[in-house]
Backbone:
């Protein structure tokens, strides 16, 4: 077995993701990718990815871990007060934060924001759809909660999307503006305040 065959496709993807996140897509060369993988032959990269660097970018987006957002455990059916609902929503926020603390997901987020103009709408949807799914599941759960179901199904759906937008802003501000994967106590407090005011408006 030759040395070339010891390099897997996933190694190229992992190395490229780290480079794209730190240097940008256009700032990363195929030579750098090959060197970081460990000196694999150039032909091996094009064997795995005939369209080169752009195909690697597409694979990174397809192998993202953000689908976990749409699969988080959400159950408000036993909640009877707005205080209980607020605490449950903060627990959901913590679970969302945990997804973005994973380095691979953080790198993916940085790449998508930085390289948005290079991506097709279908590629972007691979990252945005999990957020939409999360909002839908929150809306459905709110419709089962005694503290919010009187709003009606449609209003609960809208409320679920508003709550997701609050989560998104807090996480995006931290990841993009502060370039930090750890959310501060102040950020958590701000999210809790916003949720509190939102639930009081109902």
Residues:
């Amino acid at each position: 077995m030759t040395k070339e065959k010891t390099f897997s496709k996933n190694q190229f993807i992992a190395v490229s993701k780290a480079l794209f996140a730190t240097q940008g897509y256009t700032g990363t060369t195929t030579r750098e990718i090959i060197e970081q993988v460990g000196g694999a032959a150039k032909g091996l990269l094009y064997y795995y990815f005939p369209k080169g660097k752009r195909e690697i970018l597409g694979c990174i987006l397809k192998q993202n871990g953000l689908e976990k957002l749409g699969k988080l455990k959400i159950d408000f059916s036993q909640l009877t007060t707005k205080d209980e609902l607020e605490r449950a929503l903060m627990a959901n926020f913590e679970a969302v934060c945990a997804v973005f603390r994973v380095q691979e997901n953080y790198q993916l987020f940085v790449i998508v924001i930085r390289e948005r103009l290079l991506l097709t709408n279908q590629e972007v949807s691979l990252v945005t759809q999990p957020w939409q799914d999360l909002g839908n599941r929150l809306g459905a759960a709110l419709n089962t909660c005694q503290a919010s179901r009187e709003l009606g199904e449609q209003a609960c759906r809208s409320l679920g999307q508003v709550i997701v937008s609050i989560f998104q802003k807090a996480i995006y501000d931290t990841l993009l503006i502060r370039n930090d994967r750890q959310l501060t106590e102040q950020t958590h407090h701000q999210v809790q305040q916003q949720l509190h005011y939102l639930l009081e408006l109902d």
In short: The chain has two domains: 9-62, 66-201.
